[in-house]
Amino acid sequence: MRITRVMSGALPALGLAVGLALGPAVAPATADASPSASPSGDGSAPTEAGTSFRTATEIDQGQTATASGSAGDYLYWSFPADTGQRPTVKATVKLPKSHTAQTWQVDVYDGLRRRQACQYGAQTHTAAAGAASVELACVLRTVRAWSEPWANDPLPGTYYVRLTALGLTAADLGLPVDATLRVDSVDVGGSAAVDGSLAQPLVPGIAVRSTAGQDDEDAKDGKDDSSGPAVLSSIEPDDGWSSGWWSDRWVWTAIGAVLAALAGIGGYTLTRGSGRPRQVPPGA
After folding, report:
1. What is the pLDDT of residues 100-123, one digit of tens each?
2. CA-CA distance, 268 to 264, in Å (whole number)?
3. Closest CA to 134 of 86, 87, 160, 166
4. Nearest in space to 35 (alpha carbons), one of 189, 143, 185, 180
5. What would the pLDDT profile of 158-192 be if each residue is shown by its tens digit?
6. In Å, how far are 191, 273, 283, 284 from 279, measured between CA atoms?
7. How does strand 57-58 pair with strand 75-81?
């Protein structure tokens, strides 16, 4: 009976702890999914692409960027990816009515310009002669908060997308094409969490942002800021870098702590017995 009373009193506490732990964990996942699910219908989506890493056009996740170019050009975009995200890059190239077989490829590079492997997806695809379009996809590995210096793991920061055709014939070189690019992410959660974090995300120019911020304050005070350092990239997640500090590891840690407490209470109740029998005198 005593064990029943102890467990009946502890179960509501367990339910409360689980509810409090699950509440914050579910909210970020819902918030991350909504921008990716809704198509980009505003006029802020870029309509051109860069021609190199330095001139890559910045896009946000969930935006549908478009660009016009010529077969044989290198088209570059850049986007931010934070800890715990698994980005998916999808590209569609509309080809001219008349062309020979063309092979297109999409490559993704991190902030250190290291080529990142795709977990799956048609990263390279050959369009048959006369095909109207070709579709490409690349699902990256989950972005980690920290990694060994010798490893090639994806890290938070800027990612570059390069779209180009391979081995074009002379007849197809220079033909007009239209490209569409979209990047979405899935929040993996605590299963990808690691111990450690970067001092700064791999974003070009982020090390001088604090100085640039001071220059802005000087400009407000009437000081000349023409010699201030340039920030090479301004893109970042909507809620800031390393915004995914919360993970479901906190949930399971809280549940484990409550279960351990219940096990301790139950074990103590079982081992202490029911006390002194009624018929035994106190001095015995």
Report:
1. 999 999 999 999 999 999 999 999
2. 6
3. 166
4. 185
5. 999 999 999 999 999 999 999 999 999 998 876 66
6. 58, 16, 12, 10
7. parallel
